[in-house]
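Recap from last week: sequence in, structure out.
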Amino acid sequence: MSTSTEESYPTAWVESAFENHTENEVYTEVPGVASNSSSIHSLLWPSLFTACIIAANCLTLVAFGVEKRLRTYNNYFIINLSIIDLLVGLHLILAVVHTHVGYYPLNQALCKILSGIGTSIISASNFVVVVICADRHRATYDPINHFMTRNKRKAVFLNSLAWLGAFAFWMLYVTAWEFIDDFDNGPHCVRRYSRIPGASIVYSLVIFYLPFIFISVLYLRILTKIRKTLGGKSVQKKFSATDDHNASNSNDFPNTSSSDIGVESVGEKRFESNSPKETMEQGNSLTDKKPIMKRESAAETRKATRTLLFIVLSFVIAWFPQSINLLLYSIDPFLVLHGLPRPGRLFFGWLTFGNSLLNPISYAVSQPLLRDTVKNMLLCRCNKISSMKKTVIS
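Predicted structure tokens:
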């Protein structure tokens, strides 16, 4: 009996270009051997894995909904990533059905469309990590301007760039290309690019290697800047010293607000050029303004950096092995088919989707407030979540 039934899932859904018809021609099984066991495992474990992805990301999104303190600028990127990971889990439901019945259950037109949508969603998840790194990079190298210009509208705009970029590329590269060529996806919804070595390399570059390069460069620069700035001291000590210094300066000049950056540099010239009446009005307006921070607090910076670290690690762990396999397969299929056992290939294929499960775990580990909110929800204490008065030290 051919292994086409068992190979159908990785062929169409696990983004494993090497799990296609070539392997089915190479590997065969003795009829009737372990068929029942394979059928049970092909349904049970994918179902449990998919359910865990959906449940974890649903809990994360509900936590953001019930706890207002979680809806900060930095966490808007986390909310976007949770939405994407939830869609990945929902997208896998069809894959579980595919695995169980042994063939793609929809027609080829839907295969082409959903293949493009699914790849776009997965790619958007990786692009969002790049956006998070870029935003954290600016917060590290230009903290004052970053803090003064950041707002929720900007966060939504930056997040939308990842969606637009992913869908614009993959809907053309996957869906449009297959419709134009009238490509026969076969019974397992095989992608067009998986049949062409060069096109498969482009897939690997866009979905992993280019994001990986950007993420690596940005994150290394962030770490370098932090170590250089702190000089071996902790973030908390550094910012505490800066806050004390600013507080002493504000006591010496009580009529000047620390939040007005322009006043610090050109305030004297503006006062000299104005009439006495205008000067008094401006002086009163400056005095009436409540001082605000020019940059993130030490706790917020530490939490954002820690969250980014876990997200980057999850991305690399989930995607690096499979991307190496895809690259080797594009060079010579037998390097993978004969060099890596089938369980290993399936494991690395599933691991890419494991990124959508590792992400919500990363948020809970790095953000105590989110962890406590989820804990309260699981303990059916939702009525106490909004009224929690204790301060969670990140």
